[in-house]
Amino acid sequence: MDFDVVEIGEEKEKTTKKEHLFLITMVYSDSSIRVYCFDSVRLEDKYELLLEGTYGASCLTQALTMYLGNEFYLCTAGTDGHIALWPLTAALEQNGITSKLRRKAAQTPDSLAIPIEWSNRRQVHQNSINCVTKVCLSDDEIILVTAGDDSGLAFTRIASFTNPMNNAPQFSTLLIPNAHAAAITAVQYVCPLGSDSKDPTISRHRFATSGPDQRLKFWLLSVDMERSGAGGLQVVKEANVHTSVPDASCVYTFAGMETEGGRIVVAGIGMEVWVAGKGKEEDGMGG
């Protein structure tokens, strides 16, 4: 079970206000999906059910919304090791929400939820996917990073094309097997590192992972923007340090991680703060 929240703008008198409307997407262990509009100001009927769907027989563990090309997608992951894309633009427009997430009009009280279906999916892990994050390379291309019970770390490059004969997103995956000694339960995008000075076509990004093996690992992803698919991806493990937090389930970064002094939090049974370039904040140990 997981959820995703996106703020919605409200169009009034040629101005767009982002004050109190939110698009909340929830995925459940019974494989169902529900998308709500939440009004934080309204006193009654704060939640409006806009969309609903069912994936299949697997438990859904992750939900992430994103733009890819001209489409607004929901990406789900589950216990079957698959990621799936659900196009939401057309269904949301039937509820008065534009492709840019601007609301023109509210639903009527007797409105029914619009059914949605997944359009594309790909298996990237052997079994359950525990965590997911993303980085946008351009308006038409993203990297989806997933980790699961199989101890693997997967970098899936998803590209959208405007070719009318084939406008389906294209998937290509680079899998790092045995990235941890146990299941990976946390993955976090840390920061962009900019282009390689020797090759400006290379885009570099840093990620962090952790899990029950009590290791905090950092990974450097290099993307060749002139090569499509997984052939343009290269991943290097930058650091592998011990964390005192048992059963780590969350890694969170603060702004400034690209420079020395930025902080990263590892949480599980307890919590630990690390400082970029220095190690654990409480004892100053080197990372």
How would you sum up this structure, described in words?
This protein is an all-beta fold and 287 residues long. The protein is 2% helix and 57% strand. The chain has one helix spanning 89-93; strands at 2-12, 15-27, 32-39, 47-54, 60-68, 71-78, 82-87, 102-103, 114-115, 120-123, 129-138, 141-148, 153-159, 170-176, 186-196, 199-210, 215-224, 233-242, 250-253, 263-268, 270-275, 279-280. The protein has a 6-stranded mixed β-sheet with strand order 8-1-2-3-4-9, with no helix packed on it. A 4-stranded antiparallel β-sheet has the order 5-6-7-10. A hairpin with a 2-residue loop joins strand 5 (60-68) and strand 6. The longest helix is centred in the N-terminal third of the chain and has 5 residues, at 89-93. The protein is globular.
Draw up the topology in text.
Elements: E1 2-12, E2 15-27, E3 32-39, E4 47-54, E5 60-68, E6 71-78, E7 82-87, H1 89-93, E8 102-103, E9 114-115, E10 120-123, E11 129-138, E12 141-148, E13 153-159, E14 170-176, E15 186-196, E16 199-210, E17 215-224, E18 233-242, E19 250-253, E20 263-268, E21 270-275, E22 279-280
Parallel strand pairs: 1-8, 4-9
Antiparallel strand pairs: 1-2, 2-3, 3-4, 5-6, 6-7, 7-10, 11-12, 12-13, 13-14, 15-16, 16-17, 17-18, 19-20, 20-21, 21-22
